[in-house]
Every structure is written in structure tokens, then in C-alpha cells.
């Protein structure tokens, strides 16, 4: 059984060692690129969100490389992601690809269903030993990403951090199993710690939005690098480990994200699916932490984020920070995005010069 | 107290239920409806909402604007429709629409009790109690009224007439099918061409034998209803064609339309998908429907004809 899975940013660094530990051969699809999206567009419904199209592209490219089993998550929530797996299965079957698709549905659809699907993947080895290791690996990888965001605007020799980070992402494909991956992350952490830093007072930009488009740097045209290269530190709310915490671990412990609980209270009390509530709550949280600006990224026609955008647009007068909405779709070009970001950052610059203090930013 | 209820979007078909309940619970309250969608409302809606949101939601904002501006209502009743059916959710935009209106109209009083039938129809009672609490403090009286009230239908639409032949199934969300401004009077156009339009309604057929053909049951209330009706209709009625009314920017339609198009292809049913948005014109839609109906007509005439030209 040659297993493959869709890309989402650095997800492959966690999924690949996990399946390898379970004793499967893993085929990682080529990193998201123009061709992936072109293939995905050909097979997908027109108005579906972009992650769906990228997923299909990943699957087709992986099948061409010899994969015969696809592992995908399902869902029962109001966001369209829950129906991805079921529809992708039909589309691949109609297009004549001979693959087995394992869609791991949540317990909502019955425990037998869950066990039979998940069992195909997870039954072989003892999960209790592997899962904590995977979890700590996910935390370490996210820490590297955060470190990269911190260092990019501060490094002495420009481009050093990106060189280390790119090498890390390529080397990760060559590792096998959790141990090797862990060693690689440790080595990369050491390299990043030794980057010379110019101690500057760097302004922070917060990124909120739909999880796929803010984690995957092809989907958002590498927005973090663009902002980082312009001399701003990027901080975002959603990481892969945050997703694991929020959707798998917190429900077991009956815990809730306190930021979301506190900052979305008056605006959006109920869950509406996706991460719309997190978007609003973290936008307010970033504001309270004196960030210089907030960028909201989501794919075209994303259902929950449209509500979030609408709410944020109405809150604009209450928020004391500039807010930029970026809608990504398959037509988006990096030049257009760069221009908009430059204009946005210019606005932040001029505002902070006028008032003298970044902390006193206000629309009035 | 004047309470406004918009006759649009997800609240379409519920007006009678809500108005009846309010009249029972409080004598002072007066219910005001926004009525059918007008061009002015669509204009209001387009101006007051963000561009990415779907067309019905824009029209809905227009209804709210109309109620606030012209009718001078004291409060607007916008229940939060988390779920309208067992084991399903509504669309995220429908669940979030009270929040959206609340932030847009910060000074307006908005009553939004939660209607969540995800765990069964009996939870209508919880909704009614929560709604009633805004109008009365007498808990015992409220309980009595709620218990007497729950037998009435939550959603009420004008049922379609089914004939023996010349039936065309019009699929789409109820707020598109019944809103003549959004769909440019498509039911009338079909009727004028001599065909009989039939359309899905809620709560119609028993859903026991149906969901099996889907790869996975839909987790949206409306999608599940539409698909079930489609499935039931193609088995039990004689259909000449299927018209899908898709609204631009609707997330559910992007998946449901694909599933239904695939089934129509397998069933060999003539199929037409019309995408509606604020720019769609009467004439364009009329032309497309007429062409579709002509095509069906030729198909019927030439059913037994096999070309000798090979």
C-alpha cells in the first residue's frame, strides 16, 4: 500500500513520518505549484473553494508517481471541507483513477464507520506510543516556523533564514520515520539560533483567516515572506498544532481557547463553522496587543470567512488597526498581491510617523 | 412594539409560524413583514453588504434595511437557524446572519433565539420558550402556549401541482424558487411554455429509503432536502427535465449542483443550470429556458426515431 495525502503547508512533515512509523510506504505529492492548480481546476466544480482544487491536483500528481491509497479527513460541520473527501472520491472514480480513498469521518457518523475506515490505516501498530511523539514533532515544526517569522525582518545577512528554512523543507522529504525528522528539526533549530540578529524595533502584522490559505504558502502566494522581507514580523493564529489542540485535544479535556472565548463573546456567540469565530477573536486580540496591522486571508466563496469579513468590515471603525482583506483564487497573481501589501504597509508607516507612536494608532 | 420579520432568505416560509406565535404570546406586539423582494431592496442590499456574499443574502440585507428605514420597527426578529433537520446544520452564512446584521445595525434591537433541531424536532419547544422570554415573564403561561403550539408546521409553502406528463423539476433553495425577483419569475416562464413546474418542499417524503445512493449524506439541511426530493421525484414522477437555480457565491450549490448534474447525466435527464446574480436579466433567463424547453420538445417528438444516416 503506497499512501498519499494532500498538502497543507508543512503538514507533510508530520504526516509522512506518522505513516512511515505505521509501516506504510509514503508518496508525498510534489509541492503545490501552478500545475497542481491547473490539474485541480480541470476536475473540480467551478465554484468550489481553492483548497479543494489543490487537493485534487495533489492526488492526481501523487497517483502519477505511483500512489494507490489516499488518506483524507472528513467532517460533519457546516463548512464545505466536510464534504471534500466524499466528492473527491467520486470525481477521481469518474476520471478513471484506480485508487482506494480512505476518508476518516468523525465519530458523529457512527463509531463503527470511524473504526472501519481509520482501522485500515491505524490498526497495524500501537498508536499510543506514536501519537505523543507526533504531537511533540508538530509543536517543534511550528516553533521553527514561528522562529522564521521572527528572524526574517531582523536577520543581518538578508536571505539567510530563508536558505535554512528552504533546506529544511527539502531535507524533510528525505527523512524516514519520526526519529530522523526530529533530528532534522533539532539541527534546524540550532542553525536558526545562530543567525545574527540586528536588534531593531520591528512592527508586527497579524494574519487571520481560513486555515488552509494561511498555512499553505503556495495558496497565499507566500504572503508571510513578502511581509517579512519588507521588514515586518508576521504572527498568525492558526498553526497545525493549534488545529490538533483545538479540534482533538481540547474537546477531550473540555477546554476552550480562552482568546476565542473572551474576544468573540459579544460579536459572534455561536460557532458558525470553519474558523470564522477565531478570525474575529484573534483580530481583536492582535489589536489589543498593539499590532501595526491585520491581514485577513481567505479563498474565494469560503462560506464562514465571508461572514467573518462582513463582521470585520462593520467593526472597522471600532478596531484601531488597519485591516486588509485578501481573497485568493486561482487567478491571483503575486505582483498584484505585492502591490496591495506595499500600499497597506505604506499606510501603516505614514500613520505611525504622524502620531509618533505605533501604539496610538487610531482611525480618527 | 413593532416587530419586523423579513420575508426573505432563510426566514422565507416561516413567517406564518412566527407571527402566529407572537400574536399568542403578547397582545401589544405588532408584526410587520417586509413583503416580496423589490428592485429597491436588491439595490439597498448590494450597497450595504460586502461583494463576496451570495445574492440571496444581499437581498436579505435589503429587506432588513427596508424594515429599519421605512417601517420604523422597534426590533427585528431574526432567529439563529443553526439546524432545521435531524443531524444537519444550516449553511454557515445562515447561522451567522444574525451576527452580521447585529454588527451592521449596531443601534437596532435584534431578537435572535436559537433554533437547533440537530437532535430532533422536539427542540422546537426550546426555541419557542427562548423566543417567548423576550415578551413575557410569566413562565407558566409561556409553557402552556408553547405546548399547545408545537403541532403547527414550521415551514409552509405553496405546494406544487404534479401532472401526468410535461413536468419540469425546478431545483434550488426555497428562497430562490419562491422569490420572483431573484429568479425572474422562472416558474411562470415554464408555465407559459406549457410545462408544469414542480419544486421541492421541506418535510414531504419519508427519508428512510433515500440517502443510500449518496456517497455521504449531506450535512446541510437544505441540501439534504433538495437532494431527497430530486431522488424521490425522478423515481416516482415522470420528469421531462431538470432546471437547477444556482445562486452566485452559494457554497452549498457548488457541491449540490455537481452531485445532481452527475446523477442527471447517468439518468439521461435533460438538465439546465442557471446561475443567478444581481446582474441577471429577465430576457437572458427567458431565452435560456425557452431554448431548453424547445430541446425537450424535440426530444419527445423524436423519441422513437432512429436516424438512417448512421
From TrEMBL, chain A:
It comes from the Bacteria. InterPro entries: CoA_activase_DUF2229, Dehydratase_Activator_Redct. Residues 8-70 form the DUF2229 domain. It holds the Pfam family DUF2229. This is DUF2229 domain-containing protein. The lineage of its organism: Bacteria, Bacillati, Bacillota, Bacillota incertae sedis, Caldicellulosiruptorales.
TrEMBL record, chain B:
InterPro entries: CoA_activase_DUF2229, Dehydratase_Activator_Redct, FldB/FldC_alpha/beta. Residues 2-198 form the DUF2229 domain. It comes from the Bacteria. Signal peptide: none annotated. PANTHER family: BIFUNCTIONAL PROTEIN [INCLUDES 2-HYDROXYACYL-COA DEHYDRATASE (N-TER) AND ITS ACTIVATOR DOMAIN (C_TERM), BIFUNCTIONAL PROTEIN [INCLUDES 2-HYDROXYACYL-COA DEHYDRATASE (N-TER) AND ITS ACTIVATOR DOMAIN (C_TERM)-RELATED. This is DUF2229 domain-containing protein. It comes from Caldicellulosiruptor changbaiensis.
Amino acid at each position: 500500500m503506497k499512501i498519499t495525502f494532500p498538502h497543507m503547508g508543512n503538514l507533510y512533515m508530520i504526516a509522512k513520518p506518522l505513516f512511515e512509523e505505521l509501516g506504510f510506504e509514503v508518496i508525498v505529492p510534489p509541492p503545490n505549484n501552478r500545475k497542481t492548480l491547473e490539474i485541480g481546476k480541470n476536475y473540480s466544480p467551478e465554484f468550489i473553494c481553492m483548497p479543494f482544487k489543490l487537493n485534487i491536483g495533489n492526488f492526481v500528481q501523487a497517483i502519477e508517481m505511483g500512489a494507490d491509497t489516499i488518506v483524507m479527513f472528513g467532517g460533519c460541520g457546516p463548512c464545505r471541507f466536510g464534504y471534500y473527501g466524499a466528492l473527491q472520491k467520486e470525481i477521481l472514480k469518474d476520471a478513471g483513477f484506480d485508487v482506494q480513498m480512505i476518508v476518516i469521518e468523525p465519530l458523529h457518523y457512527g463509531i463503527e464507520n470511524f473504526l472501519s475506515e481509520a482501522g485500515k490505516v491505524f490498526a497495524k501498530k500501537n498508536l499510543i506510543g506514536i501519537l505523543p511523539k507526533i504531537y511533540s514533532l508538530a509543536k517543534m515544526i511550528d516553533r521553527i516556523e514561528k522562529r522564521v517569522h521572527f528572524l526574517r525582518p531582523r536577520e543581518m545577512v538578508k536571505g539567510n533564514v530563508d536558505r535554512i528554512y528552504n533546506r529544511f523543507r527539502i531535507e524533510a522529504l528525505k527523512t524516514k520515520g519520526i526519529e530522523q525528522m526530529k533530528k532534522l528539526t533539532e539541527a534546524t533549530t540550532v542553525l536558526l539560533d545562530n543567525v545574527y540578529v540586528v536588534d531593531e524595533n520591528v512592527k508586527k502584522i497579524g494574519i487571520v483567516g481560513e486555515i488552509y490559505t494561511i498555512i499553505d504558502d503556495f495558496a497565499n502566494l507566500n504572503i508571510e515572506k513578502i511581509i517579512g522581507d519588507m521588514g515586518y514580523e508576521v504572527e498568525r493564529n492558526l498553526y497545525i498544532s493549534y488545529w490538533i489542540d483545538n479540534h482533538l485535544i481540547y474537546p477531550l479535556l473540555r477546554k476552550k481557547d480562552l482568546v476565542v472565548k473572551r474576544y468573540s463573546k459579544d460579536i459572534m456567540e455561536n460557532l458558525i463553522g470553519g474558523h470564522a469565530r477565531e478570525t474575529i477573536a484573534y483580530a481583536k486580540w492582535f489589536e489589543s496587543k498593539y499590532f501595526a496591522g491585520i491581514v485577513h486571508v481567505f479563498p474565494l466563496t469560503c462560506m464562514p470567512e465571508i461572514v467573518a469579513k462582513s463582521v470585520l468590515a462593520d467593526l472597522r471603525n471600532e478596531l484601531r488597526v488597519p485591516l486588509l482583506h485578501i481573497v485568493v483564487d486561482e487567478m491571483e497573481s503575486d505582483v498584484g498581491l505585492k502591490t496591495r501589501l506595499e500600499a497597506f504597509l505604506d499606510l501603516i508607516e505614514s500613520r505611525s510617523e504622524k502620531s509618533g507612536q505605533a501604539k496610538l494608532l487610531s482611525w480618527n | 412594539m413593532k416587530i419586523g420579520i423579513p420575508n426573505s432568505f432563510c426566514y422565507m416560509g416561516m413567517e406564518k409560524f412566527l407571527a402566529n406565535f407572537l400574536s399568542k404570546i403578547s397582545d401589544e406586539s405588532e408584526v410587520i413583514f417586509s413583503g416580496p423582494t423589490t428592485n429597491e431592496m436588491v439595490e439597498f442590499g448590494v450597497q450595504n453588504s460586502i461583494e463576496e456574499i451570495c445574492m440571496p443574502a444581499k437581498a436579505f440585507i435589503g429587506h432588513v434595511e427596508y424594515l429599519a428605514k421605512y417601517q420604523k420597527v422597534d426590533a427585528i426578529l431574526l432567529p439563529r437557524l443553526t439546524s432545521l433537520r435531524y443531524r444537519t446544520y444550516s449553511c454557515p452564512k445562515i447561522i451567522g446572519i444574525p451576527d452580521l446584521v447585529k454588527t451592521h445595525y449596531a443601534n437596532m434591537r435584534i431578537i435572535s433565539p436559537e433554533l437547533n433541531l440537530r437532535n430532533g424536532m422536539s427542540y422546537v419547544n426550546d426555541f419557542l420558550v427562548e423566543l417567548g422570554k423576550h415578551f413575557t415573564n410569566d413562565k407558566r403561561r409561556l409553557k402552556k402556549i408553547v405546548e399547545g403550539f408545537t403541532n403547527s408546521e414550521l415551514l409552509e409553502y405553496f405546494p406544487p401541482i404534479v401532472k401526468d406528463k410535461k413536468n419540469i423539476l425546478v431545483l434550488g433553495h426555497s428562497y430562490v424558487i419562491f422569490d420572483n425577483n431573484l429568479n425572474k419569475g422562472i416558474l411562470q416562464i415554464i408555465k407559459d411554455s406549457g410545462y408544469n413546474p414542480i419544486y421541492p418542499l421541506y418535510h414531504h417524503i419519508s427519508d428512510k429509503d433515500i440517502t443510500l445512493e449518496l456517497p455521504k449524506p449531506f450535512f446541510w439541511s437544505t441540501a439534504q432536502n433538495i437532494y431527497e426530493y430530486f431522488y424521490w421525484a425522478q423515481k416516482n414522477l415522470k420528469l421531462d427535465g431538470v432546471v437547477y437555480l444556482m445562486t452566485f457565491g452559494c457554497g452549498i450549490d457548488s457541491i449540490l449542483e455537481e452531485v445532481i448534474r452527475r446523477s442527471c447525466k447517468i439518468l439521461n435527464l435533460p438538465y439546465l443550470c442557471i446561475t443567478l446574480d444581481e446582474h441577471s436579466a429577465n430576457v437572458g433567463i427567458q431565452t435560456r429556458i425557452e431554448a431548453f424547453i424547445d430541446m425537450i420538445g424535440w426530444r419527445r417528438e423524436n423519441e422513437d426515431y432512429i436516424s438512417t444516416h448512421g
